[in-house]
Amino acid sequence: MARDVDALAGRLALELDRRRFLQATLTAAAGLGAGLGVACDARLPVYPFTLGIASGDPLPDRVILWTRLAPDPIQGGGMPDVPVSVVWELAEDAAFTQGVRRGLAVAHPSLAHSVHVDVPGLLPARWYFYRFRAGGWESPVGRTKTAPAEGSLPGSFRFASASCSQYRESFWTAYANMADEDLDAVVFLGDYIYESGLGDLSEDVRLHDGGRCRTLLDYRNRHALYKTDVNLQEVHRIFPWIVTWDDHEVSNNYAGDIQDEDAPDSDPPASEFLLRRAAGYAAWYEHMPVRVLPPKGDSLEIFREVKIGDLLAFFVLDTRQYRTNQQCGDAIQIICPEFPDPNETFLGDAQEAWLLGGLSGSQAVWKSLAQQVIFSPTPFLGQLNFDQWDGYPFSRQRIVDHLVDRDIENFVVLTGDVHASGAASVPLGPDDLDTRIGSEFVAPGIGSSFDDDLANAAKLIFESLPHVDYLDGTRRGYVRHTVTPASWRADFRLVDTARQMTSPIRTDASFVSQAGVPGIVPG
Ligand code: CA
Fold it and tell me: Which of 246, 289, 290, 454 lies at 20 to 30 Å from 187 by C-alpha?
């Protein structure tokens, strides 16, 4: 009964919201349309849902639905320069007969005719179906799932973590296999696009749409090219995603407002880097199913918490936008005399304070960082990768000390970036690799390649570290996680090849963290 009343109240609120929203958007669209002499719901001559549909950032009562109208996807989208009405529909069944809600969104040219609809009034831990209509066309039917109720303790939550999908270097056989998994969500850890140039079919399996991304149009076309991949579209269509970015959504190894030290001469000058960053951020926002506010100039705040009841809290981090410059150099280098600088920051003050407060305030059994680069110390023949947390040891130690001081258990770091699978127990620090304070699972990359000649050496070197149990650089794939109140299991799902259009997949290794016992064991 209480549930019925709640549901009714929710529906009434939804209806009021919807009417207010409709009124506001129709007024705005009519004004703009009238000014331009074009109707906001004109028919479109060509199918506009070429980039698919997506959902993400689930809450117990809401989820973001996304699409972008782009009849000519990799040439600017091909839409008229006017706002266009998009009808969205959500239902409890794929035939759209049960509990149907619908509303109107406006696809605006200033956001490349993308829409982010935050559908309210939903029930927790439920699968829903959704679709869009615009210009006389209908999108495919998507499927999404809300988060479990606040305060509830779900028996399990299954998700895949993924990263690093270089289009030129791979067919996304990993996504083709991921679509067959039984998942509640996908967590994407960065390098969704690559800003690099056209490519060369003597090395690459397919080509980019143009040269290196510099302008907003370049980044829009690059996202659109990636989004035309049918395997990627399918995984977006059937699971909600929780997404963060890394460097390649803008430029390799950038740090805050400082561009890559190895940027080619053809890139815009370093003094113009923030303009390029603004373009990359804007295009990312336009193409991701995220619940964040649109970018303001060259800034876009994306760090946020996604709660899976009291089972799991994802702290989705941005380790790019606020970091100080890499010390000693952007990649794997010898340690320079000025290292470490106590003034370095990896997260910036605001995000770090938010994270530390979130970690100590969380009611969740498992506290997980959904982030970009390797957290655990990984010295490499006396050198460090200064682009990773190793390059920012004070920032990392403040998090580790906070966990230890507050007795915060069940800390799990999710990582991407390096195109190699990895599993480690997070140690107390570079000088104590034996005391365990958490676990780290590094996703292998959907398609970005790892140097074959280095794979064996890297395996030998990293697996000889006391806290690292596993490294594989030979194959692409993703990590499938099964989280319960008692344990966290990670299965490394690797495809035989990403250089052909299809591939079998297998579990190469599995590791388990038991609740209350820091670190991992083979599973
Ligand atoms: Ca990266």
Answer: 454
Lay out the sheet containing 468-472: strands in order across. 304-308, 312-316, 366-370, 411-415, 432-442, 421-429, 468-472
Q: In 3-state terms, the chain is what percent helix, strand and coil (to 5)? A: 25, 30, 50
Query: Which tokens sit at 56?
Result: 């993400």
Structure tokens at 487: 């344990």
10 Å Cβ neighbour count for 190?
A: 26
Domain boundaries, the chain: 1-147, 157-522
In terms of Cβ atoms closer than 10 Å to its own Cβ (0-12, 13-18, 19+), residue 498 is buried
Tell me what pLDDT residue 11 has.
44
Q: For residue 12, what pLDDT is reported? A: 39
Tell me the CA–centroid distance for residue 31 and ligand 1, in Å: 43
User: Distance, CA 205 to ligand 1 centroid (Å)?
Assistant: 21
Give the model's pLDDT for residue 489. 98
**What letter would DSSP give residue 325?**
P
Amino acid identity of residue 448, one-letter, is S
* pTM of structure: 0.92
The residue among 465, 470, 477 whose CA lies nearest residue 441 is 470
Q: pLDDT tens, 382-429?
A: 999 999 999 999 999 999 999 999 999 999 999 999 999 999 999 999
C-alpha dist (Å) from residue 421 to 340, 459, 475 = 28, 10, 8
What CATH number has the domain spanning 1-147? 2.60.40.380
Distances (CA, A) of 483 to 21, 153, 160, 311: 38, 11, 11, 8
Residues of the chain with pLDDT under 50: 1-39
Measured in Å, residue 167 CA sits from the centre of ligand 1 at 14
Task: Give distance in angstroms: CA of 89 to centre of ligand 1.
Answer: 36
Q: What is the structure's pLDDT at 42?
A: 77
Q: Which residues fall within 8 angstroms of residue 18, CB to CB, at 6 or more apart?
A: 101, 103
> What is the SS3 assignment for 66-111?
EEECCCECCCCECCCCCCEEEEEEEECCCCCCCCCEEEEEEECHHH
- Ligand 1 center–CA 172 separation, angstroms: 18
Question: Residue 108 Cα, ligand 1 centroid: separation in angstroms?
Answer: 31
Neighbours of 474 (CB within 10 A): 15
Per CATH, which fold does 157-522 belong to? Answer: Purple Acid Phosphatase; chain A, domain 2 (3.60.21)
- Name 488's bridge partners: 483, 513
Q: How far is the CA of 373 from the centre of ligand 1 (A)?
A: 7
Instruction: Please answer whether residues 195 and 251 qualify as being in contact, where contact means their C-beta atoms are separated by less than 8 angstroms.
Output: yes
For helices 216-227 and 273-287, the axis angle rounded to 10 degrees is 30
Cβ pair 276, 288 in contact under 8 A:
no
- Separation of 169 CA from ligand 1 center, angstroms? 15
